Amino acid sequence: MTKTYQLFIDGKWLNSKSAETFYRINPANPKEILGKFQQGTKDDIDKAVDAAEDAFGKWSSIPPPKRGEILFKIVELLRVNKERLARLMTKEMGKILLETRGDVQEAIDTFEYFAGEGRRLFGHTTTSELRDKFAMTIRRPVGVFGIITPWNFPIAIPAWKLAPALICGNTVVWKPSSDTPLCAIELMKILTKAGISDGVVNLVTGPGNTAGMHLVKHKKVRGISFTGNRDTGKQIVKEAGIKKVGLELGSKNAMIIMDDANLKLALDGVIWGAFGTTGQRCTATSRVIIHETIRKRFEKTLVERVKKLRLGSGLNPRTDVGPLVNKAAREKSARYTKIGMEEGGKLICGGKIPKLNGFFFQPTVFTDVAIDMKIAKEEIFGPVVSLIPVKNLNEAIKAANSVEYGLSSSIYTNDIRTAFEAIEKIEAGITYVNAPTIGAEVHLPFGGVKSSGQTREAGWAGVEEFSEEKTVYIDYSNKLQRAQIDTK
Ligand code: UN1
Question: What letters, b where the CB count within 10 A reaches 16 and e where it falls short, cover 317-335?
């Protein structure tokens, strides 16, 4: 019997007013149905926003260290449930257990970091140009926040948003991806068990273009935080009106490998960066910009390694690469492979849908790719990597910057001058030296430039995303003092 799951609004599990549902299946075994979920509607969003608005006064007036105590409880519960959640996540979106454990760990780290922020949430004090006057800033919550989260990090990314939203005193309406509703429901259960009170976090599953967009447009919603694709991001900017909007969008991350690099290390980096999470990270290494003198040697060892990668269910400890999240994602990888060949890229490995039950695609490598080809410019979000040969660092940086995106980047070199030049000149929110483009840590800012987004989240940046800084002047001179005028 397929279990039916509900929405969570104002502390209660409810059916959607639409009375419509959708199914989620296991992408490694599409016959396995994981559950039946509610198709939330605009009415459900309205109800959730009202609940969040009602809960705001009480929640925002709790001292932040007390809110932090609840976040620490969430940490404990996530720890106890880590293995169970990881297994469920592997079933729901396909990545291997090693990685789903990492995903839950990222949520644990995030809640722990922000629980501690309850005792900081710093504003600052500064001088005044007038005598007997004090100047400082304090942090205030924004209000009701709408958060819209993707399926590729179905517990970690919600945590990046929920933890700072809650510690700063906001209340939340959360619309998760329809590919991972079960992970969202399980995380919601943990939040309630930890003592998050009614209306503070409300969960509405359902379609992005109706329920999600209604949340974005909603007059009572003061902030939106979205992680997902560029086109939805563009639409959100258009529709949100005047509210705080945070966007983490796609990318086309480049790894530069210079002729002096440790090639064994770079090889490990490409394998992990390009094929980890089956290439489905916004930080995935999708372009390898490689010095032409080492290119042939590198290609050979890369193909040998890629051919050894074992595809299969992520629950099997021998599996290296799991399935793509759904059929459409697999079609996209297949479509871009075809495009790559038509544009003159040289396919040296993979490129096919293997004979496996589930949405698998072979880890795929193209070489001789030019920067103006579609496979070098557009986000594929699958296990497809393109090698772009270059003659020197200048050309490498130019190639890295030739795309519209700029989230993560990396350079392999043993020359400190080369490394610093790349750090300075690559247009991206993140640059790794001698490490792949994936693997951000939760206490540092995360986010991109150009079409990758306009936000930084995680760490202190998360506090800034989810709070307003209020400026406070306290004049204790007992007379009218005019700034810019009475300054002698
Ligand atoms: C994403 O793919 O949207 O840095 C986030 C990383 C992970 C987060 C990825 N910690 O790869």
Answer: eebbbbbbbbeebbebbbe
Which 3 state secondary structure label does DSSP give 293? helix
Q: Is the beta carbon of 230 within 6 A of some atom in ligand 1?
A: no
**Model pTM above 0.85:** yes
What's the rounded Cα separation, in Å, for the pair 282 and 278?
Answer: 12
Q: Which atom of ligand 1 is closest in space to residue 446's alpha carbon?
A: 4
Answer positive or negative: Cα dihedral of 326, 328, 334, 340: negative
Q: How far is CA 130 from the centre of its chain?
A: 45
474: helix, strand or coil: strand
Please state at what angle helix 393-400 crosses helix 416-425, rounded to 10 degrees: 30
CA–CA distance, 380 with 297 (Å, rounded to integer)? 26
pLDDT at 1: 81
Contacts of 379 (CB under 8 A, 6+ apart): 229, 230, 250, 251, 252, 286, 405
CA-to-CA distance for 44 and 56, rounded, in angstroms? 18
Furthest CA-CA distance within the chain: 83
The three-point CA angle 319-324-328 to 5° equals: 160
* Cα–Cα distance measured from residue 256 to residue 377, given in angstroms and rounded to the nearest whole number: 16
CB 185 within 8 A of CB 24: no
Which one, of 238, 251, 241, lies nearest residue 451 by Cα? Answer: 251
- For the cut 90, the answer to whether the pLDDT of residue 389 exceeds it is yes
Atom 6 (ligand 1) nearest CA: 439
| Residue bearing tokens 């759904």 | 326
- Which residues are known to be catalytic? 248, 282
Beta strands in 292-433 (DSSP E): 346-349, 364-367, 384-390, 408-412, 430-433
Does the beta carbon of 152 lie inside 6 Å of ligand 1? yes
Contact 295 CB / ligand 1 (< 6 Å): no
Distances (CA, A) of 69 to 33, 109, 168, 237, 473: 37, 15, 13, 35, 31
Q: Tokens 């986000």 — which residue?
A: 379
**pLDDT tens digit string along 291-319?**
999 999 999 999 999 999 999 999 999 99
Q: Which amino acid, 108?
A: I
Residue nearest ligand 1's atom 11 by CA: 438
Residue 487: is its pLDDT beyond 90? no
DSSP string, 6-34: -EEETTEEE--TT--EEEEEETTEEEEEE
Cite the beta strand spans of 219-363 per DSSP E: 223-227, 244-248, 253-257, 285-291, 346-349
Residue ranges and CATH numbers for the domains of the chain are 7-249+453-472 (3.40.605.10), 253-433 (3.40.309.10)
Residue labelled with tokens 């032409």: 292
Q: Is residue 349 within 8 Å of residue 343, measured between CB atoms?
A: no
